[in-house]
Design brief:
542 residues; alpha+beta; 7-stranded mixed beta sheet; 25% strand; globular
């Protein structure tokens, strides 16, 4: 299959990495004691998009990072493809979003069809607020995203990726973690201050620590058929309920780069999974949908059953979990990898403060809280979507079908149509890092929510925020905490929309965290209020 060809391409990139990596075996150094573990500050287990993005975030903040990759290649095949605007904003801060957008298929519109209807019963726009730098979504194969992240990481001398280095043991200690590693050159140990487990849904680190991963398995199967074909269609998301070409089931279709198309066919519960991915059994489904004369090539076929799970806690001593190792959702809604990017965006700046001695390890409880809020929101939406897609009783199916029937003619029914509530940023209104509003605000972005992008001068607001604390104001503000940079919109051109979206009247200001979430806001900030809000946002306040 084509996927095997893709794997060879990524091996070429890995050879470049191997040339610049130092020896992974500490006892290879003359005179070193082979019984003594190698000392590191941060070890990341997992080289998927989440682990690589976390390595990039910490590397850009100046920290030494070692990434342990289980394989010696970047796996091709069918994984994440849909990346949300929030993820693109995060990737833009890391300096890789533009490459992803240029390579990916940009889309904002989704359409939902019912039975034999040729016109959609409902459509939605994933970028309802216009005039922002990033689009609502892009489609990009996960291996392309990993390629882009690896190219950026290659520029950082303080980040090392060790290919085919598999974790074999994890032992918590008072001031760190002792990690056993096996690689082609032998076995060795690392004594690391912190271990970040980004090793996916079947996390070896989680299993080695004997930690829980509770949740729900949905009794249904879906076939992913990634095919290569020349087809001119608008870059949109298409979803069908009970179509003639897959009666009683659902179908989802997405366009990807390189003339690759993803089609998800709902199959039902009692199936022969091996038989379902045989080309002779997939071909009738594709031709029933696209026409008997369609010309296409197989790229990747697989069958999956999805789950919604999460750990009870994401922070366990000096081991921190992020991405699928911490939480798992169904693919409908594209909340898996996007949820993982939200984790690393939340964690990076907090761990940076701990590593830099500006905060104690207790500050990471804020990550545990906020990441769980995000995971619970994603699991809730994913579960609701799955229940709507795969009704398990006559009553729920009757409700689902009635909604779909009404949606074509009546606007009130359309919000109930659920073909997958797509990933958007999650707010933390009760975060312990927020300073609650002391004044009445009509609009704007409240504490615990992410800043909306907007034009500023000849660029964009989020570009100017970077990855640090920033006080965004409409007019000068004095006596700002030393670690907080200032961005006075009154000194720039083309800022009316930014001021409107933040509800910044003259004299008002908003304190923005390094992950672009609002920590506090004032109509007329005072030095005392600024200091108190910064202390709270950094875990320094009681």
């Amino acid at each position: 299959m084509s996927a095997r060809i893709n794997a060879h391409k990524w091996r070429d990139l890995i050879r470049v990495w191997r040339e610049k990596m130092p020896s992974p075996m500490p006892h290879a150094v003359a005179g070193a004691d082979p019984r003594r573990p190698e000392d590191q500050r941060v070890v990341i287990v997992g080289s998927g998009p989440v682990g690589l993005a976390e390595a990039l975030d910490l590397g850009l903040r100046g920290h030494e990072v070692v990434v342990l990759a289980r394989f010696d290649f970047v796996p091709a095949g069918s994984k994440a493809i849909c990346f949300s605007k929030r993820s693109l904003d995060i990737l833009d801060r890391l300096g890789v979003a533009q490459q992803a957008v240029e390579k990916g298929v940009v889309w904002n519109v989704g359409k939902v069809y019912w039975q034999a209807d040729r016109e959609p019963i409902y459509q939605f726009d994933m970028l309802p607020v216009k005039h922002q730098k990033m689009p609502g979504f892009i489609n990009l194969q996960q291996y392309h995203m990993e390629d882009i992240l690896l190219e950026r990481l290659a520029e950082l001398p303080n980040v090392t990726i060790r290919w085919a280095h598999e974790v074999t043991s994890v032992e918590q200690q008072d001031d760190g973690v002792l990690i056993g590693v096996s690689c082609p050159d032998g076995d060795y140990r690392i004594a690391s201050e912190w271990l970040l487990a980004c090793d996916g849904s079947k996390s070896a680190v989680r299993d080695m620590l004997g930690l829980d991963f509770d949740g729900r398995i949905f009794e249904d199967n879906f076939l992913i058929a990634d095919i290569r074909m020349k087809e001119e269609r608008a870059p949109e998301r298409w979803f069908w309920f009970d179509p003639p070409f897959n009666p009683g089931q659902s179908v989802l279709m997405h366009r990807q780069p390189d003339d690759v198309w993803r089609i998800d066919f709902q199959l039902g519960w009692n199936i022969d999974r091996e038989a379902c991915i045989r080309p002779e059994n997939v071909d009738p489904l594709i031709r029933a949908m696209l026409g008997e004369d369609v010309e296409y090539e197989e790229e990747w076929y697989s069958v999956y059953t999805f789950q919604c799970r999460r750990m009870a806690r994401f922070v366990h001593g000096r081991v921190i979990f992020a991405g699928d190792s911490a939480h798992l959702v169904s693919p409908f809604g594209a909340r898996g990898c996007n949820g993982g990017f939200a984790d690393i965006d939340n964690l990076g700046w907090k761990l940076d403060r701990v590593l830099s001695g500006k905060a104690s390890a207790a500050f990471l409880e804020a990550y545990n809280y906020e990441a769980i809020v995000t995971a619970d929101e994603n699991i809730l939406n994913s579960t609701r979507s799955t229940d709507f897609l795969t009704p398990k009783s006559e009553v729920s199916r009757a409700f689902r079908d009635a909604v779909l029937d009404l949606a074509g003619q009546h606007a009130f029914a359309r919000p109930f149509v659920n073909s997958g509530r797509l990933s958007t940023a999650v707010s933390y209104p009760e975060s312990p890092l927020n300073t609650p509003d002391a004044e009445r605000w009509a609009g704007g972005v409240p504490p615990g929510s992410p800043v909306l992008d907007a034009p500023v001068d000849d660029g964009w607001l989020l570009e100017r925020l970077g990855g640090r604390f920033v006080l965004v104001s409409n007019g000068p503000v004095t006596r700002v905490p030393d670690e907080v940079e200032t961005l006075d919109l009154a000194t720039f051109a083309n800022t009316a929309l930014a001021c409107e979206r933040l509800a910044l009247d003259p004299g008002a200001a908003v304190l923005v965290r390094p992950d672009h979430y609002v920590a506090a806001r004032w109509k007329q900030p005072s030095p005392e209020g600024l200091a108190a809000a910064f202390a709270r946002a950094t875990g320094a306040a009681p």
